Amino acid sequence: MEQAIPSDIHPLSEKERDYFKHLTDTMDGWEETVQSGNVTASLRSSLDTNIRMLRASSLFVDVTPSVVYDYLQDTVYRCKHSITYNNKTLCYINDFTSIEYFCISCMFPLHDRDCVIQKTCVPTPEDYIIIYHSVEDEMFGVTK
């Protein structure tokens, strides 16, 4: 049975894709950059909110972007090899956008966390930009 897509969830518009591509191409507004090996991570505050964005990037010189993307998105592999992580695809909006449930088991004193996210992939000739953001809807309520 096919699930209906909540009205407030939609594929990225061209304007939204351009905005996120711009965020990956510039350091303006990004802070607290951390470098470890070939991975770089930066934080950015979102205007007028207490939400912070995380940007992580890595360069794999001997692997194509499509192979890295397939590896990162293989939910069967991720769940099989991680005892602290569980995820389930709830529905697909289009070929590059899905709604997923994530649950992460944490050690004491932290509590297990779960969330429902919209995952969007923006493929470009040079790279793949993967965007995650939390969504709320009565159909996909958080349980933990």
Helix/strand layout:
Elements lengths: L13 H12 L5 E6 L2 E7 L6 E7 L6 H8 L2 H6 L4 E10 L2 E8 L8 E11 L4 E7 L10
Quick tags:
single chain, 144 residues, alpha+beta, 4-stranded antiparallel beta sheet, 3-stranded antiparallel beta sheet, 3 helices, globular
Outline the structure in words.
- With 144 residues, the chain is of the alpha+beta class.
- The protein contains 3 helices and 7 strands; from the N terminus they run H-E-E-E-H-H-E-E-E-E.
- It has a 4-stranded antiparallel sheet. A 3-stranded antiparallel sheet has the order 1-2-3, with no helix packed on it.
- Strand 5 (97-104) and strand 6 (113-123) form a beta hairpin.
- The mean pLDDT is 76.
Mean pLDDT, nearest integer? 76
Distance between the termini: 25 Å
Sheet-strand content, in percent, reads 35-45%
Q: What is the number of helical segments per DSSP (H or I, 4+ residues)?
A: 3
At a glance:
The protein is α+β, with helices and mostly antiparallel strands and 144 residues long. Helix content is 18%, strand content 39%.
